[in-house]
Amino acid sequence: MGQPLSQAGIYLVQTLFNLYLLAIVMRFVLQLVRADFYNPISQFFVKITDPLLKPLRRLIPGYGGIDVASIVLALLVQIVGIYLILLILGVDIPNPLQPFLWSIVGFASLLLNIAFFAMIVMIILSWVAPNSRNPAVDLLRQITDPILRPVQKLIPPIGGLDLSPIFVFIAINLLEIMVVRNLAIMFRVPSGLIMGL
């Protein structure tokens, strides 16, 4: 009886915390790329994260155009989620620094996943709905353009074909393999505990 209840508890914690974590990181990304604040999807992320982010911003100011409070909140949410899951599993944490390090790895992985999937969706939309003015498409374009632009300057379209997404995918995968996975091994991140890993 205890096993199914534990699994249900872990599932609930992971789902709720991961959804909220995704909202925080999306807000961070949208601020980083200076996306349209008045876009209804941007407003959704603002409203869902403001209750925790506003008080934190009074303590932690931004730095160099980076919303540091969003990063701190994302790490805190992930740490609390980790502790809850380990509590449900009945596992002791020998070193309190471990959940913090695991959260950094999870944050980096989530950023790369957002970039990766935003690129995939934009490529598909460029084939099926190239001139769409949907708010979601506008936001995806605002996320992917700053990533693609430097690559497009180095590798301009050849015969009308833009090859820059291929090189961006390679770069994202290399970062995932060489940085995130190595950090996950170094910090002994348990598989399935951190979002994006």
Produce the secondary structure layout.
Blueprint: H1 2-32, H2 40-59, H3 68-89, H4 97-128, H5 135-154, H6 164-186
Helix pairs in contact: 1-2, 1-3, 1-4, 2-3, 3-4, 4-5, 4-6, 5-6
Structure commentary:
- The chain is mainly alpha-helical and 197 residues long.
- The chain has one domain (2-186).
- The protein contains six helices and no strands.
- It is globular, with a radius of gyration of 19 Å.
Defining key terms:
6 helices, mainly alpha, 197 residues
What sequence of helices (H) and strands (E) makes up the elements?
HHHHHH
- Alpha plus pi helix count: 6
Q: What is the residue-averaged pLDDT?
A: 88
> Helix proportion of residues, in percent?
over 70%
Query: Whole-number radius of gyration?
Result: 19 Å
Q: Tell me how many strands there are.
A: 0
What is the terminal-to-terminal distance?
29 Å
- Please state roughly what percent of the residues sit in beta strands, choosing from under 5%, 5-15%, 15-25%, 25-35%, 35-45% or over 45%: under 5%
Oligomerization status of the protein chains: single chain
Using the alpha-carbon principal axes, give the shape. globular
| Main sheet makeup | none
Low-confidence segments: none
Name the structural class. mainly alpha
Number of domains: 1
Quick overview:
This protein is an all-alpha fold. The chain has helices spanning 2-32, 40-59, 68-89, 97-128, 135-154, 164-186.
